[in-house]
Predict the 3D structure of the following.
Amino acid sequence: MKIKGRTISRGIASGRALVTSKPISFLGGVDPLSGRIIEEGSELFSEIIANSVLVFPQGKGSTVGSYVLYQLMKNGVAPCAMINITSEAIVAVGAIISGIPLVDCLQTNPLDIIHDGDMVLVNGTEGYVEVIRDYKNETSK
Amino acid sequence: MHLTKGEEAIYKGEFGATKQKAMEILVSLGDIYGANSLIPVDSAQISGVSYKTIGDAGLGWISDLGARVEVPSMLNPAGMDRENWKDMGIPAKFAEKQEEILRAYERLGINMGCTCTPYYIDPPKFGGHLAWAESSAVAYANSVLGARTNREGGPSALAAAIIGKTPCYGLHLDENRAPDVLIRVVDKLHDSDYGALGYKLGEMLRDNIPLFQLDSLPTHDELKSLGAAMAASGAVALYHVVGFTPESKSFDRPKERLSLDLKDIKEIYGKRSGSDLIALGCPHCSTDELKRISRLLSGKKVTTDLWICTSRWVKEQNPDLVRAIEMSGAKIICDTCMVVSPASERFERMMVNSGKALKYVPSLCGVDAVLATTEDCIRTACD
């Protein structure tokens, strides 16, 4: 299943999806050393975002969050790609400086069609997302 | 967004990785905010300078960049006075990291005057396009000087500095500069009243544009204080003042109206007792403010710590004023301020004459803050 979106940050990567319906604050919300979500009350609390395709509505909080994404990348624990409903400046800039592919404004709401564990390809260069393997359907078979 | 051939070449990486990243930032932000093209900027002002704010994360990114800025660019305040950091009680480790950040910016060709009032050093011209990040400077440049800038973030202002352009959207366009609400203040305002007014209104205004009708004649410093406070408690980037600001006559009066009096404003002030630091200069003091503080301090001795924050440029322009102020025992602090320096964190309660500091000191320093007039601040410091 291929879904068209908008290029925010170029590059191509694929990985397992990690999905939350709430905005993420990278400053204070994600530990830059381990890539672990440390924001209390987050749906992804204590999950490791390293090498995942992180799916979330948008960023929130301090603009320093852009630099935290860069730090995650330097430490080798950044998401391999990201998908937003609508990107804002913090995550957009963070993705670009860190070389993390980011696509937003998909034709279908990504929260409706992508689930935790799905294998997802993000093509930030051409601006589309592809759900390669549906984890839920596979396990229920 | 439409790119010229030259811009396209940068986007493809023909001028190196740093310029390519900078162009990608501008293009993506332009797409997000609906810009059609990039426009040249006269200058850039970059936030994200204090090690306290950006930490190792920011330092890492800035150190990795390899390009020179295309337009005059200045920095926001750092975390310490670069000359007197030891006196401020800054740990050596912090000072080392702070200097690393500043050197990384200097390598890019950025001016080392670390200030939230860059307009005293290099005043923007009316109608000129800028890419400025410091929110109080954005408000001042747009409103009092009639220049045009959005509220940039640190990396987007730096990207604009490296490319010399910014995406054309928001406050760069005439149609987005019209006031949304007319605010009538029926009493005469003076000094910190403007910061209190801004503090009160910011949250309600969010990023709307107010048009003020005032009974008093504000000074430039009072307008600076008003805008800084609205930009801190809200996200106001432009305001107009009837009869004062250069674009106040350019638009129709808004239908939405609101009236305030001094009673609404006075409730923002706190009690004078119990402050162990009195800090003035948020935003950084102008020469006029230093003159006034020097007059108020004349013949007095400071008994409670009194910080007066200003830019190194303003300090160097006024050696006599600086000497007169320092005679009282007050400290002139440059390159930094009470909000972004960790040096203020050791105090219990800070007295300020700024609505912006009143907003930020509790959350960013973990210190209680109380608003008072400049006169009361000086009186308390010398009690």
Observations:
- The interface with chain B takes residues 6-10, 32, 63-64, 66-68, 70-71, 74, 86-90, 92-93, 96-97 of chain A (CB under 8 Å).
- Residues 2-140 of chain A form a domain with the Glucose Oxidase; domain 1 fold (CATH 3.50.30.10).
- Strands of chain A lie at 2-4, 6-9, 12-19, 53-56, 81-84, 102-104, 119-123, 128-133.
